[in-house]
Amino acid sequence: MLVLCFLSLWGPLAVGQRSNPFGSLAGRTRASAAPQPQKVIIDTDIGDDIDDAFAVALAVKSPELQILGIETTFGDTETRARILDRFLGEIGRSDIPVLVGKRTPAKTSMSQGRYADEARFAKASHRDAVDFLLAEIQKYPGEITLIGIGPLFNVGEAIDRDAATFRKLKRVVIMGGSIRRGYGDLGYNEHVPPQPEWNILNDVASAQKLFASGVPLYVMPLDSTQLKLDEVKRAFLFTRGTPVTDQLTILYHMWAQETPTLFDPMTVAFAIQPELCPVTPLHIRVDEKGNTREEPGAPNAEVCLDSRPDDFFQFYLKRVGAR
Asked: Which of 26, 100, 162, 312 is most buried, judging by how many CB atoms fall within 10 Å of its CB?
């Protein structure tokens, strides 16, 4: 009787079939344990150097990230937003909000500005970037990673408006600074001393506020981000024929230079696979000239001083080039 009752709980078995009463439960446990995508907001000056476009491409191809929005910063922020409108529209991701930061005096000619002339995907208007950032932090306190790959105007304004809310970010990951190596020091040639880096230099005050904010801060400086996309790697990407790689190809040719340096994509890669750019806790002071100086004191940032380029490109090319 006891045996029959036990068997009836599991139903009839086919001849030779082995019962695993825990199989479906184990499957459900594995499914429920799958990590949820990270909530991220990207702050970019897309349209000048080409590396911003390569960073956005990696983000949209990464299921580990839930992109809450992409903000524009520095110079003609409205044109930058229209570049994003088209890029996201062409790849079928118009669901991602595009936000506009405050316009600042233009210091560069926007090499990819013509890309925005295609009005098919242009939005009639865009919300304010800082309003959006603070509202999303309030909605998801402690959950959002802010990825900064441009000058830090939106960051500084958000801190000025509501520092308490800004501190509820999970973390900030930026491409910025020059700690022990400057532009052109690739690690195997003659040493180039540290120097003011573009994103920090163009808004020193905001960088100073960020490093003093108390928010967990992860920094990808020149030391670890001078990653050259050579012709073999470019040929691989540009012949993949996917919506994302086709748009990268167009933007690359508008950029009208030869070998991109993928400074910005390392920030996105770090958010997904931090082992690609191991970090060291340091105390960094941003001086009035935009230098990011390593000094004694309690760490205020986790800094990647040396990345893993071969592993980075293996990851990047497989992910962005995937069909």
From this structure: 100
Q: Is 13 buried (19+), middle (13-18) or exposed (0-12) by CB count in 10 A?
A: exposed
Sequence-distant (6+) residues with CB within 8 A of 112 are 46, 47, 48, 50, 53, 83, 251, 254, 255
Cβ partners under 8 Å of residue 274, min gap 6: none
The two tokens of residue 203 are 């808004």
Architecture of domain 38-320: Alpha-Beta Complex (3.90)
Contact between 321 and 313 (Cβ < 8 Å): no
Q: Which two tokens stand for residue 164?
A: 């308490």
Is residue 52 within 8 Å of 45, Cβ to Cβ?
yes
Q: Distance between CA atoms of 146 and 140, rounded to whole angstroms?
A: 12
Q: Could you tell me the residue ranges of all domains in the chain?
A: 38-320
271 forms beta bridges with none
Q: Could you tell me the pLDDT band of residue 114, with boundaries at 50, 70 and 90?
A: very high
Q: What tens digit of pLDDT does each residue of 39-49 get?
A: 999 999 999 99
Q: Are 80 and 72 in contact (CB under 8 A)?
A: yes
- State the Cα–Cα distance between residues 37 and 40, nearest whole angstrom: 9
